[in-house]
Amino acid sequence: MQRVVLLREGKVLDTLDLDQKIYTIGRDSKSNIHLDDPSVSRLHASLSMVGTQFFVEDHKSTNGTYLNKKRVTMHVLKSGDEIALGHFTLRYEDDSAEGELEETQVIGRPASSGRQSSRDEGFRKVDDVPDHAILTFIKGPHAGEVKRIEGSLYTIGRPGGDVAVVARRPQGFFLLHIGGNSNPKINGAEVTSTRGIQLNEGDIIQVGEIEAELQFE
Q1: How many Cβ atoms sit within 10 Å of the Cβ of residue 24?
Q2: Strand ranges (E), 59-109
Q3: Contacts (Cβ under 8 Å, ≥6 apart) of 122
Q4: Full DSSP string of 136-176
């Protein structure tokens, strides 16, 4: 079982079992974890489950999100980690063994793409794994922008809507469905698994109204 213990000035206020895939944290009364205090932004941060692990992500909060006293944008959590948000602390606890993301669904390229698919070949060799991925946004609020993925995770979408992440594993980059009413798509094919689909050069990713092309370098 995974949970967070909410504290303020060392005093335990509440304990929440983490039984869903995404939690918003903030001053907004609609937040899953509501912290009604001026030190907390309306949408301050979120907790997202990827595979069997939770990640904390800061959402450009005014006062920042700190993991074990170090300011972070996005970071994987391990049992005992303490997340500081304004005057509050969330202590993450995990009784279960850590697991790895697995590929459970195979999606090929459309025949019209003209590109050679490598999905049927299984995982790439570690030596062939690209160092970075680049997303060129085609549709949505960031259309025309180019994002170079530097870290282990990159979120597409926002909490409360359709959300997916591009995650870097030793075998390559994977797309994972995190939340929302609609599943993400790769090259027009719906992703029904939430445990990780390996991505290829030139894949078109669609998450809600957002559409982006993936390239490697």
Answers
A1: 22
A2: 65-67, 70-72, 74-76, 82-85, 88-94
A3: none
A4: EEEESTTTT-EEEE-SSEEEEE-TTS-EEEEEEETTEEEEE
The pLDDT tens digits along the chain (217 residues) read 899 999 998 999 999 999 998 999 999 999 999 999 999 999 999 998 887 789 999 999 999 999 999 999 888 899 999 999 999 999 999 987 444 444 334 444 443 343 433 443 344 444 567 888 999 999 999 999 999 988 788 889 877 788 888 988 888 899 988 878 888 999 999 988 756 789 999 999 999 999 999 999 8
Per-residue tokens: 153: 């995770």
Would strands 153-157 and 146-149 be described as parallel, antiparallel, or unpaired? unpaired
Q: Is the pTM of this model over 0.70?
A: no
Sheet holding 133-139, edge to edge: 146-149, 133-139, 210-216, 204-207, 185-186, 189-190
Burial class (CB in 10 A: 0-12, 13-18, 19+), 91: middle
